[in-house]
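pls read this stuff:
=====
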Amino acid sequence: MKQDFDLVVLGGGITGAGIARDAALRGLRVALCEKRDFGSGTSSKSSKLIHGGLRYLEHGEIGLVFESVSERAVQRRLAPHLVRPLPFLVPIYEGNKPGIGLMSIGLWIYDTLPLKRAVTLISPVDKRVVFAIPWRGRTVIGTTDTDFEGTADDCHADAADVEYLCRSATSYFPGGKFRPEDVIATWAGLRPLISDDANDASDVSREHQVFVRDDGVTIIAGGKLTTYRRMAKEAVKKTLRWLDSLGDRPLRGRKLRRPRTSKRPLPGAAGLPTHTMTGVRRLAKELAAKYDVPEPAAIHLANTYGIRATKLAAAIELDPALGEPMQDDLPYVWAEVDFAVTDDLARTIDDVLARRIPLLLVGRDQGLDVLDRVADRLTELLDWDRIERDRHLDAYRRTVADSRRFREAPVEATG
C-alpha cells in the first residue's frame, strides 16, 4: 500500500526519535528509518545521565549549562519514572581544577548539594572529568574522549580506554584496586561533535547546529542527550520554514498543531498518580498490593515502565513464573522479555538483552547464561525457524564479544 509522508527521519537515536515525535504531534505524516534498533547507536552508549554539565562551565559555555539544567527539569516532569535525582559527591583538592569557586557557581546553577551517591572525579592522568555512577545495581565509570577513525559500526572500547578508567578510579578509591579483569562490560559510541579549533575532543563544544540544504535535507549536528527535545524542536521548525518557502507550499491548507513537547508526558508517565517520584513510589506499592508482585520487582517495574508496569504486573499475576528474576542479583523478571516484543518493538535478541533488558551491560555473564531461554521465547513470539534462531544467537554472541574486545590486547600499567 502506497503511503505519502511529509517528513522522513533518518536515524532512530534520541535525536531522531525526538524529531519524529515533535513532528507527529504537530500533525505531520512522519516515517522514521533506522537500520538497526531504536537507540542502538550512540544514544544507548552514554553515561546514562541527564545533566547540566559542570564541565561546560570551565569552557565558558554558560548558555549550554542553563539550557541543559532547564531541560533536565522538563524531563523530570515528563518522565519521573526514568529521570530521577542523583546526588553527587564532588571531591575538591587544593590546587586542582575545578576550584572551589567554579564548583560553587556550578552547584548554585544546579540547585543541588554534593551529597553521597555518584562521584565526580578528576582523572590524575589528563585532568578530565570522570564519573562513578550507580546504575542498575552496578557502577558505571566513564567517560573517555578518544579520537576515532574507523567505521561507526566498529566502535568499541579498547584496552587503553579501560586501563585509563581503572587508573583514574583507583586514584580516588585506592582500596578498590580496579583492574581490567574486574570489568563486566564496556560500551562506546561516537559523539556527533562539530569540528572547531580545539586540540582535544574533550574541549570541543557540545552545542548543536541545524542546517537545511537547498534540496530540503535537514541536518542536525552536535548536541547532547539532555537537550534532545530542544534540538528536535529546532530541527522541525527550520524544516517547516523551508517547506513554507517553496513555491507550491506543500503544506498549504494544513492546520498544524503545537506539539507541546515540554508538557506532554512520555510513555509510562501519563496516568501516574502524580508526575513526581512520589507518584512512581505510589504506583510500586499499588502493583505489590493489587497484583501480589514481590516488592523488589514492583519497584523495578514502576521505575522502568511507569504506568505501563500494570500490564506486566497483570501478566505476573496470571503466571507467577513470569515474576521470577532473570538474574539472582538483578531486578529483571521474565515478563519483561515478552513485553519487549509485544509492546516495545524488539525484534532481535540484541534488542532485548542489550537495550530493553540490558543484561549485556550489567549481567555478570552479559546475558549469555539466559541466552538460550530468551531465544526460545523469541522464537515462539516471532515465529522464527531454526536457521533464524541460530542467526540471532550468533549475532548476540558477536555483540558480547565486541564489548570484551578490550581483553584481546592488554596494555601495561604505567604511573
Notes: Residues 112-116 have pLDDT under 50 and may be disordered.
